């Protein structure tokens, strides 16, 4: 059974400021590099989106990813390349929300 893994973050800095934009770029680059590496077995799709709505309740960034199985998601979560991406975003992440669900 396939799995979708959705993560949303808020990043440090005031929306629209150069610091906030730099933090968004760091996060986006870290996860795009992870997807481009091809290092994660079972990772079918990974997409990063930056919010443009400016709604006060919106998160700054969303990660949309698909895995071929719950086991593949578990491998991803423990994979050294994923750990490196998480370390890279480190302190710029100020909030995180996650949903994992099965789909066909």
Word description of this protein:
The protein has about 100 residues and is α+β, with helices and mostly antiparallel strands. It is about 40% helix and about 35% strand. It has one domain: Alpha-Beta Plaits (2-Layer Sandwich). It has helices at about 20-35, 70-80, 80-90; strands at about 1-10, 45-50, 60-65, 95-104. It has a 4-stranded antiparallel sheet.
Please give the structural blueprint.
Layout: E1 2-11, H1 18-37, E2 43-50, E3 61-67, H2 70-78, H3 80-89, E4 93-103
Antiparallel strand pairs: 1-3, 1-4, 2-3
Key traits:
Alpha-Beta Plaits; alpha+beta; 104 residues; 38% helix; 35% strand; 4 strands
Distance between the termini: 6 Å
Rg result: 14 Å
N-to-C series of helices and strands: EHEEHHE
Calculate the mean pLDDT score and round it: 95
Number of discrete domains: 1
Q: What can be said about this structure in brief?
A:
The protein has a single domain, classed as Alpha-Beta Plaits. The protein is 38% helix and 35% strand. It has helices at 18-37, 70-78, 80-89, and strands spanning 2-11, 43-50, 61-67, 93-103.
């Amino acid at each position: 059974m396939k799995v979708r893994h959705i993560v949303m973050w808020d990043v440090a800095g005031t929306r629209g400021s150069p610091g906030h934009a730099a933090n968004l770029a760091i996060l986006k680059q870290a996860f795009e590099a992870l997807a481009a590496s091809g290092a994660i077995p079972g990772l079918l799709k990974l997409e990063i989106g930056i919010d443009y709505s400016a709604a006060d309740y919106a998160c700054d960034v969303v990660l949309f990813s698909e895995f071929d199985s719950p086991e593949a998601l578990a491998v991803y979560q423990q994979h050294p390349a994923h750990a490196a991406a998480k370390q890279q975003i480190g302190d710029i992440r100020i909030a995180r929300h996650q949903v994992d669900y099965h789909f066909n």
